[in-house]
Amino acid sequence: MATTFKSGFVALIGRPNVGKSTLLNQVLGQKVAIMSDKAQTTRNKIRGVYTSDEAQIVFIDTPGIHKPKHKLGQYMTRIAQKTLNEVDLVIFMVDVEQGYGKGDQYIIDMLERAKTPVFLIMNKIDKIHPEELLPLIDMYRNKYTFDEIVPISALEGNNVNTLLQQVSSYLEEGPKFYPDDQVTDHPERFIVSELIREKILHLTREEVPHSIAIEIDEMSYKKDRDVVYIQAAVIVERASQKGIIIGKSGGMLKKVGSLARQDIEALLGSKVFLELWVKVQKNWRDKESQLRDYGFNEEDY
Ligand SMILES: Nc1nc2c(ncn2[C@@H]2O[C@H](COP(=O)(O)OP(=O)(O)OP(=O)(O)O)[C@@H](O)[C@H]2O)c(=O)[nH]1
């Protein structure tokens, strides 16, 4: 009997650091979402595409589902809420080591408003004793009627295949949205901006990282010099943050640029000229369209 091909969009949500990027990387077999011990490293949606013989799952990495503290947070929350209604399935991930908190309740309140099926993924089971798992499952069952509850270790890969099978079983018959070998949709600009952000996160230990965004102003191949020229803006919300990122005599920005350039060169396999600048932008709402526009234009390259 011929089986039908299934496909659909799945939103991956959860509090910062529960392991969403780690799961995506595990599923897709390569580093697409940048990981960091610091919360909130992935601000934008990444679509990781998993394709098997039976199904295609398009993952939407949806960070920012938490109580907004500033404009960018509000923007993200709005996008997140919208996403929950548009996808075919929501995966709500929790860290079994972290207690149930206000952040989780906030997400569950958002889920109550969506009609989409919801899986609860209990991640990091490698960190607890198996006996501790059952009471935790009961606790979450009392909070919300999840369609499935799947304990996994995203880091070690335990139960990840089962999860993929279960996700596929919830999807409806559908087309292959992306070719088999595509793991991310328009990855270059996104990954370049994430690499720059990652360097800032690692080099500055200030409050700054939580309110920055990276905007790629230009990314083009310069034939005469045989380099990829990238101009990117580091956008901050306050002037004081600008000073921290630029650093003494521009030292911090130079360091960020140099480390990011090395990684980008490795990613693109060509020489890179990276120009970074910092701008203060108070009103994030004006940035909505640009934040959405991570499309990589072949012609610029
Ligand atoms: N022991 C263990 N650690 C894990 C597991 N999954 C993720 N981690 C660790 O948890 C930390 C956070 O993981 P991320 O994947 O960056 O978390 P995230 O949810 O994507 O975080 P944001 O990007 O801030 O939304 C990293 O140090 C991971 O190595 C797991 O299954 N077991």
Describe the structure.
The protein has helices at 20-28, 71-86, 102-112, 130-143, 160-170, 187-203, 239-246, 251-268, 288-292, and strands at 6-14, 47-51, 55-61, 89-95, 118-123, 148-151, 172-173, 213-222, 227-236, 272-280. The protein starts with 5 loop residues before the first strand and ends in a 9-residue tail after the last helix. Helix content is 36%, strand content 23%. The strands form two sheets. Strands 1, 2, 3, 4, 5, 6 and 7 form a seven-stranded mixed beta sheet that branches. The protein is α/β, with parallel strands linked by helices. α6 packs antiparallel against α8. It has nine helices and ten strands. It folds into two domains: 6-173, Rossmann fold (3-Layer(aba) Sandwich); 187-300, GMP Synthetase, Chain A, domain 3. The protein is globular, with a radius of gyration of 20 Å. The chain binds guanosine-5'-triphosphate (GTP).
Low-confidence stretches: 33-44, 284-301
Q: Radius of gyration, rounded?
A: 20 Å
Specify the CATH homologous superfamily of the largest domain.
P-loop containing nucleotide triphosphate hydrolases
How far do the termini sit from each other? Answer: 46 Å
- List each distinct ligand once: guanosine-5'-triphosphate
Write down the overall geometry.
globular
Give the % helix.
Answer: 25-40%
The appropriate CATH architecture of the largest domain is: 3-Layer(aba) Sandwich
Named CATH topology of the largest domain = Rossmann fold
> Strand percentage, roughly?
15-25%
Beta strands, count? 10
- Would you list the SSEs in sequence order as H and E? EHEEHEHEHEHEHEEHHEH
Mean pLDDT: 79
Helix/strand/pairing class, anyone?
Answer: alpha/beta
Count of distinct structural domains = 2
Oligomerization state of this entry? Answer: single chain
* Count of alpha/pi helices: 9
CATH domain class name of the largest domain: Alpha Beta
